[in-house]
Amino acid sequence: MATTPTAPRQPLFYVDPQPLNLQQHREIRLKNGNYAFTSEALAMPAVFGEFADLSRHYPVLFAGGDDGGPIALLGVDATNVFVTDGVWAADHYIPAYVRRHPFGLMALTPDAKPEEYALALDVASPRVTTDATESIALFEGEEPSAFVKEMLNFCSAYSADALVTIEMCRALRAKGVLVDRRLDGTLPDGQKIGIDGFQVVDAQKLTDLDAETIVDWHRRGWMSACFFHLASMQRVSDLMGLRAKINAPIKNIG
């Protein structure tokens, strides 16, 4: 069976994101949650600044297409092998996209500039409550709580990193460094696995880049990102091994 880790189009996991504001959400609070909402995620969007951390635990690929961005591969089918009963695997880096949920930034206008984005909250999240028991307030009087300010800073940093990531991916494609790939494997019980629809950096093409481009990418940190990506491919066999331990039929995607 073949699966395709397509670039998840935002807002992945979000059902009803709304710009957070005092008038509408004064009574809303946030209780503790878990990562069960990612249990069927094949892949997760990734950003440039986390390539080093991701590469230690997950294959980092590039979604196919002209505008596909980097993704962290979490499984070989609709099973995130790193989440069990809502708990992420111990000592594993948790992707930033997951950690910001149920918050995110939302454009206030169709052609919004950075200053025209607002912190949004997915009010459909099971973490949203009005019960003050074991929950965090989103507002303190007339002001956002310290927790909300912290999440705004986190989401703003993520969005800034995402813009750099888009620029890097465009440069990689413009230089022809990204090439189509497919992964095939067989689990111990005989189930066939095929993962396609993604791209990887061609190491030889990266080496053959002109000196000016290499220097420019090195200064931007993009060469390091490419090396972390290439090193992360060693995690593919680990991923298949983890899926085999689950000992369950391969789930279809979509």
Can you summarize this structure?
This protein is α+β, with helices and mostly antiparallel strands. 32% of the residues lie in helices and 24% in strands.
What does this protein look like?
By secondary structure, this protein is of the alpha+beta class. The chain has one domain. 32% of the residues lie in helices and 24% in strands. The chain has eight helices and 16 strands. The chain has helices at 22-25, 51-55, 96-100, 146-174, 203-207, 211-220, 222-232, 235-246; strands at residues 2-3, 17-19, 29-31, 43-45, 60-63, 70-73, 83-84, 87-88, 103-107, 117-122, 128-129, 135-137, 139-140, 143-144, 178-186, 192-201. The strands form five sheets. Strands 1, 4, 5, 6, 15 and 16 form a six-stranded mixed beta sheet that branches. Strands 2-10-9 form a three-stranded antiparallel beta sheet, covered by helices on one side. A hairpin with a 2-residue loop joins strand 13 (139-140) and strand 14. The radius of gyration is 20 Å and the shape is globular. 31% of the residues are buried. The model has no long low-confidence stretch (mean pLDDT 90).
What are the SSEs and their pairings?
Elements: E1 2-3, E2 17-19, H1 22-25, E3 29-31, E4 43-45, H2 51-55, E5 60-63, E6 70-73, E7 83-84, E8 87-88, H3 96-100, E9 103-107, E10 117-122, E11 128-129, E12 135-137, E13 139-140, E14 143-144, H4 146-174, E15 178-186, E16 192-201, H5 203-207, H6 211-220, H7 222-232, H8 235-246
Parallel strand pairs: 1-16
Antiparallel strand pairs: 2-10, 3-11, 3-12, 4-6, 5-6, 5-16, 7-8, 9-10, 13-14, 15-16
